[in-house]
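This part of the workshop introduces the protein records we will be handling. Getting from the letters to the tokens is the skill we practise here. An example says more than a description, so a record of this kind follows:
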Amino acid sequence: MRSRTGQLAATAVALALTLAACGGEAGSSASSHDGREQVTVAALPLTDAAALYLARDRGLFAHRHEHRHHPEARARPAHRAARPGEPPPPRPAPAPVHPGAEITAELVFDHLRVRLPRDRVLVEEAPSHRDALHARVPVDRSGGFLTTGSGALCWGLPLAVGRALADRRRVVCVLGDGSALYSVQALWTAARHRAPVTFVVLDNGGYAAVRALGRRIGIAPVPGTDIGGIDFAALAESFGCPAAHADRPADLPAALERALAAGDEDGPRLLHLRVAAAGEALYTAPWAG
């Protein structure tokens, strides 16, 4: 028997085909419901030969809305909302990290906080270290920080290239090693078009976020999540992107300074940093499910 999800997907495809057959003018839509769920598909033509169809499952949305507002649902505390045009309220910075035997993401972000110009756009795709970045690198300018809200991977590196080419101003992109491998070929595009991007790759030797999610649902170890031994500096240079690496905390300040000092006309730079794993606490909060 087909699952409920499969039935809804089939309904969405059928509605999209119906719209396509009818011409699919901009804003047109079609709906189907059976008393429990309603599926709506809207047509958004892109070109004369292609269109984008957006499907919405009203029943699923209602279920999520009900769950989020259930009396037993746990909410995270929120800061006071800022008025339009007003910077967000300041928050206390964590205590600085004292260098140890290994480079940690927290140490990288402490140095980045001091050295990152406030008018630079920061792009982030490092799921294992996202909370540490949010805690240690302030974002106080509208449009100054780009990340995903859905957990999607592989977009960060090419997004940074596109933003840099659009503005012709240096963008700083913080990536995990796993995230970088999804779309590493964008380094070739960055080099070819001299996109002013500084890529900082935090290499913890694997898909740590996937491992953490596996632990959360009782799967350990998760196969295929160890990807150590990659020389991202050499890989970047093979694409034509100048690169460097740092393996010791003592080497980090100067290496990061050089990577960030490149001008808007200097093309891309990549800094490969081997960092300690984020620990076992990743994705253990109740809101992560």
Notes: The longest helix spans residues 4-21. The mean pLDDT is 78. The chain has two domains: 4-68, 105-288. The two ends are 28 Å apart (CA to CA).
